[in-house]
Design brief:
globular; eight-stranded mixed β-sheet; 16% helix; alpha+beta; six-stranded mixed β-sheet; homodimer
Chain lengths: 399, 399
């Protein structure tokens, strides 16, 4: 976590209330403590003494930028302002002395379906008889609403859900899912600022996007399969969604903007790309069986998503719907074209199970398995902009 | 609004901050004012001095009941406690001196599809080749997540949305919807109380349901038709959902509980009805063209819904998903079996347009049209438990 990153999150030091923090190396900077000594005049105290980033998200982009700029000055080598303010001496805390909490109180959670490769893979599996891509897919970023209230922070255990499934012919039975899967995604968190009835133009989307998080959209494929027609996924997804503890700002990712793949046919004018808004973020999925060591099972990139975050937000508000401070929009599963670049187990194991170092095999997750997502931009001599990990361990179903 | 009702809402008196209120006849009782003189010891001041009912929803059912019981005592004929507390003399305000605000800050919004007649009607229209009811429909209350952030209070104008539609063959075009429709629904608002991973049993659902509201789930049928496969409705619904200003408690509706229609096949044990949780609520839809008089266009009942609110909440949490204070769960369009009992225009006009008194016809809504939903239980000599109206006027699309 170099000074070029400075992501935002919520930490709870021991025996204290939650507050806003940024991360620098192996430390977090307690913004409430820095504010108390007068060094963050950009925002009122309630923005940094908050249980979530929502009050900050409710400010405008100029304020987000001014605050982050101030932090970069305060944390620059040779700056002694924090040290000079005696009362803020404990503002810099070792990362292992704080608890990382859910950074955002999520209002609405939208999940897109914006990877061409993932949509093609899933279409082949769920509708083997026809064209894997439905006629609308290249015209708009298909998405649906998930459950915002079950978004949890990295580290939260994931209880295996029950649901109605139809393993054979005949009526459904109610039992724990046998097909617990992951979905590797990147999500963006919005500020506010568009009144009801007023779309956000594709060229202005970045003004309304605070930053990105890693997302694991846990999925129960057997529950999803029985329920999803005609209104889409519901309980097969709504039991839990894990996000990374740090929201990485668009400004930190600015050096890593890329054009995104060509689009054919060209989207309608309101969705036509106004600028490069894909991001070269490398992604990795690791799986640890029981207490074992994590093994990489997938490696891919966010850069290849067919629809960019700007197109997604422009589409989601093109009917006049608002984006609230704290709304989360996830990309959909990120899969590449080559074997080993898929973002879900159902895709990774199409041609056979994954073999783990302990000799066991996986098609879907077993109790005790831990899944870890990593994501970073840069590296190889450039500052590495990371998200921290997005981790969850599967607990057995309730009996 | 008799003393048997005492619904909860949020009012803003002129030049004042919003606060919690109840309704009695043509007046509202300002609960913050009553609390200030010490007459509502059941709750702390922040519960009634709130911009929404969420802090109250976060309390338990015993507190909800104690508060409503206290109000019924204070408002009983002959009780002089409020009058005796001089400072609360302005607690009772004429309804036309306050603004009625959105009662709940909606977190997640779930929309079910629980009317057998509506699901059958829509299935015939959208999938004419097959069985109108899909195989899952009688096994679980089909539902999906809508957009909580665009739930608005009665009276909020509804801007006609733009979207991608395919009126003929060929690629889509982006234009204002030509098929703006309504959906007559009843929704319930939850408290909290189920930790992540812990389902709410069907027999305990009522402990987590604060009360009911009327819901108009505005729908753009042409936008919906192009986008909804494979992940369900998105922008065809997310532009606006109107709810009534008053949340009517389950206790007020207790005399109007009915069994609901028989279910065949019997649901799985976790969804089997534990008690009568359908409600005999009469419903009416009125349409006013331009500045004209409202004309009744549909009359139906909530009593006939196939899935009850208890079954809906048990299903929605059966995978361990939480319900937050302020989550909204709507019934889905309420349609009866007979002509004139359908809850949407697309159903009402299947066999021809509606004729209005001014001689005009409607298949879908035109700019300037006003739709009003009414709902009530009782009447005919019994106390009438009403919701107030759920109203919206269509504004022209942005150019």
């Amino acid at each position: 976590f170099p000074i070029q990153n400075l992501p935002f999150g919520i930490v709870r030091p021991r025996d204290s209330a939650p507050r806003v923090a940024t991360r620098i190396g192996d430390h977090v900077l307690d913004l409430a403590a820095v504010h108390r000594v007068g060094l963050l005049p950009e925002v009122p105290p309630e923005v940094v003494e908050a249980r979530n980033l929502n009050p900050l998200l409710g400010r405008d982009r100029a304020t987000w930028r001014a605050l982050r700029h101030r932090l970069s000055v305060l944390l620059s080598e040779g700056n002694g302002e924090i040290a000079a303010a005696g009362d803020a001496g404990d503002a810099l805390l070792p990362i292992d002395e704080v608890e990382l909490l859910l950074p955002v109180e999520v209002g609405d959670y939208v999940d897109f379906y914006s990877s061409l490769e993932h949509a093609t893979n899933l279409g082949r599996m769920f509708r083997p008889e026809g064209d894997p891509l439905l006629p609308n897919w290249r015209h708009l970023p298909i998405g649906y609403h998930g459950r915002g209230g079950t978004v949890v922070v990295s580290g939260t255990p994931i209880r295996r859900p029950w649901g109605q499934v139809t393993p054979g012919e005949g009526p459904p039975s109610f039992r724990p899912t046998q097909r617990l899967d992951i979905e590797l995604e990147v999500g963006f968190v919005t500020g506010g600022g568009n009144p009801l009835g007023t779309p956000i133009p594709v060229g202005a989307a970045a003004d309304h996007i605070f930053g990105l998080v890693l997302v694991n959209d846990w999925s129960a494929r057997d529950i999803q399969r029985f329920e999803y027609q005609p209104l889409g996924p519901f309980l097969g997804k709504s039991f839990a969604t894990t996000i990374s503890p740090w929201v990485v700002t668009l400004d930190a990712l600015e050096p890593h903007r890329v054009p995104g793949p060509p689009q054919e046919p060209e989207p309608l004018p309101h969705l036509r790309r106004a600028e490069d808004r894909a991001y070269a973020i490398d992604l990795e999925v690791l799986l640890a069986a029981g207490g074992g060591d994590p093994t990489p099972i997938s490696r891919t990139t966010f850069a290849g998503m067919y629809w960019t975050i700007a197109q997604q937000l422009a589409h989601a508000t093109s009917n006049g719907a608002t984006a609230r401070p704290g709304d989360l929009f996830a990309s959909g599963t990120i899969s590449g074209a080559d074997p080993g670049t898929e973002g879900s187990l159902i895709e990774l194991t199409r041609d056979g199970p994954i073999r783990l170092p302990d000799g066991s095999e996986r098609r879907f997750l077993e109790d005790g398995d831990t899944v870890i997502l990593h994501g970073w931009a840069g590296g190889d001599g450039r500052p590495r902009i990371g998200f921290g990990e997005c981790r969850g361990t599967v607990l057995p179903a309730l009996s």
